[in-house]
Amino acid sequence: MKLDIKKLIILLVVLPIVVACTSSKNERWHQIESMLNENPNSAWLMLHQDSARLGEYSKSDRMKYLLLRTEAMNKLFYAMDTISYMKDVLDYYSSHGSEEEKAQANYMMGSVYRDKGNSPLALQYYNEAVAKLDTTKSDCDYRLLSKIYGQMADIYNLQRYPQMELKMLDKKALCAKNAKDTLGYFIALEHRSSVFHKLGYLDSVYQIAIQAYQNYKKIGREDYAAAALAPLHEIYLKKKDYAKAKRALDEYRAKSNLLDDNGEPVYRGKEYYYNYLGWYYKEVGQMDSALWCYRKILNYPSDIEDLEAGYKGLMSVYSLKGMGDSVVKYAHLYADANDTANFRNSASEVSKVQALYDYTESQNVAVRKAEEAKNVWKALFMSFLLIVLLLIILRKLRNRAQKMQTQYDATKTELDSTQKEMKLQKQKMTKLRGMLSFYQTNANEEKWESESMVMNSKIVQAFQAYANGGKQPTVSEWRDLLTLIESSIPKFWERLSSFNDTLSTDEFRICVLTRLCFSPSQVANLLGISKQSVTNKRKKIVQILFKSDEIKKLDYMIKQLK
Fold it and tell me: Residue 178 to residues 98, 99, 127, 279: CA-CA distances in angstroms?
């Protein structure tokens, strides 16, 4: 009896402490969640402070911490492609937590696969997240739904599937409106302009951009208003209205907060501003400024289209300046970039995932309805109900088969259209290579042939494939590449070899890859190191080889090295 009393006393002492700790932790999670939308940097700081005590947390608190941490990374545009813990988080919330937490876990898992470049899996988890949220409930988290549909729209944009992109943007707008998220609603309406741009409806793009500019002005968001001017850059330049184009470009740079005080892009993808600025300078005859802008794009390429724009712009300016060697060089680089762009992932893979999900979801809906009907009618009409349900199921299966046939026919039609487009692109490439042949004849043919032999060699092409696929070459392949450089570009090899004592193996290889026009991100893939490591090594290289700190000119100086 004394032992029981003792246990009771301990329980009475410990229980309030446990309850207080749990309550305190839950309050902190709620505080961080509230910060994430308005001040993600502060939320991230609070999470960082908690990281040292993560081992002391219960499993539920640890999973909540990791979920919030991933959400903060997503808010701050941190790359999430290396995150490995989200599977554990998702497994936990599959049987724990609220429906919103389950949806959030699937949303974050989708975002991890988004950053990995796996669009089908990203879509799969985004769809799972949508399925967790019940729009029939009054407390449905429409704000979260709006964000999910926005991410799905971005994926369809990357996959060049404008119809589905527009559908997701409409859903995003509706959910933002239901959430009373005025800014989110305006953003969804504005992003529709990218769809109409891909479809070639520039009048619609213009109207949407102007309306978006006015909407943002009404709610006092000068930064968003300035950013909404981006589509007008192209429109004004095509209309040769250079005064309006310059005003729009200047307001974008000054007020959008997408470029820092030095004009550097704050986020990936915003460097495309310099394509339009370079276009403007070219049209008004400021060729040196135009060259600077196009080279600026190549310093921050976030997409193959950036490389296309940069190379094409440089090719056009050098053509106007009558510099044949440079025209040939950038025409070749533009051709390679254009080839790569033409073979990007087809939207068909994404549409198949969506179709598979729709099929599975329709099955789930059918089962749920059947169960509801069974509960209603089983008391009086059990036998009759079984017959009716059988007929309904058979009818639904027949309709579903017809629907799948229709989807198959539509997909086949789209595939045929894509193949035709690829054929047109190949014809375009034939013309472009004809231009290259012209410049070879009228420029430095010997130099062209030497450069072309190296760039088109099997080993360089193999390295290109490894770089784009995130793989590292073998020791033997590295040896073959270096042998090719030594025999084909002897002066460059001799000069570079003179620094063998001061350059590390990786630094030597970076010099060779830079000479072959590999980007820093591609170099990182080939060497199996981080982009930051590549940047640090490039800083050291420019100091050793050229006694300079101008890392931005390293590519140019390496290519001039003799």
Answer: 21, 19, 19, 41
| One-letter amino acid for residue 437 of the chain | S
Q: Which residues contact 389 (CB under 8 A, 6 or more apart)?
A: 370, 373, 374
Q: Of 451, 478, 512, at which residue does a domain stop?
A: 451
| Beta pairing partners, 259 | 265
- Express as a percent the part of the chain with pLDDT over 90: 40
Q: Nearest Cα to 277, choosing from 215, 329, 234? A: 234
Q: Are 297 and 290 in contact (CB under 8 A)?
A: no
- Does residue 270 contact residue 259 with C-beta atoms inside 8 Å? yes
Q: What is the span of the domain harbouring residue 422?
A: 368-451
Domain membership of residue 377 (yes or no) is yes
Distance of alpha carbon 271 from alpha carbon 395, whole angstroms: 54
In angstroms, rounded to a whole number, what is the distance separating the alpha carbons of residues 500 and 210?
58
The answer to whether residues 472 and 437 belong to one domain is: no
What is the tally of structural domains in the chain? 2
pLDDT tens-digit readout, 344-362: 544 445 555 555 455 445 5
Assigned domain for 304 exists? no
Rounded CA separation 234/45 (Å): 40
Radius of gyration, CA atoms only, the chain: 29
Among 298-307, 344-353, 398-407, 514-523, the range with the most confident prediction by mean pLDDT is 514-523
The answer to whether residues 439 and 497 belong to one domain is no
441 and 386 in a common domain: yes
Indicate whether 244 belongs to any domain.
no
**pLDDT at residue 396, as a whole number:** 72
Q: Is the Cβ–Cβ distance between 354 and 120 less than 8 Å?
A: no
Per-residue pLDDT, 370: 56
Q: Virtual CA dihedral for 191, 193, 198, 203, nearest 10 degrees?
A: 180
Quick check: 323 pLDDT over 60? Answer: yes
Q: Which of 388, 416, 451 is the last residue of a domain?
A: 451
Mean pLDDT is lowest, of 41-45, 376-380, 510-514, 546-550, for 376-380
Q: Residue 503: inside a domain, yes or no?
A: yes
pLDDT in tens, 50-64: 777 877 888 888 888
Same-domain check for residues 503 and 521: yes
Which residue is associated with the tokens 């339009």?
276
Are residues 528 and 465 both part of a single domain?
yes
Mapped onto helix, strand or coil, the DSSP state of residue 86 is helix
Residues 442 and 489 both lie in one domain: no
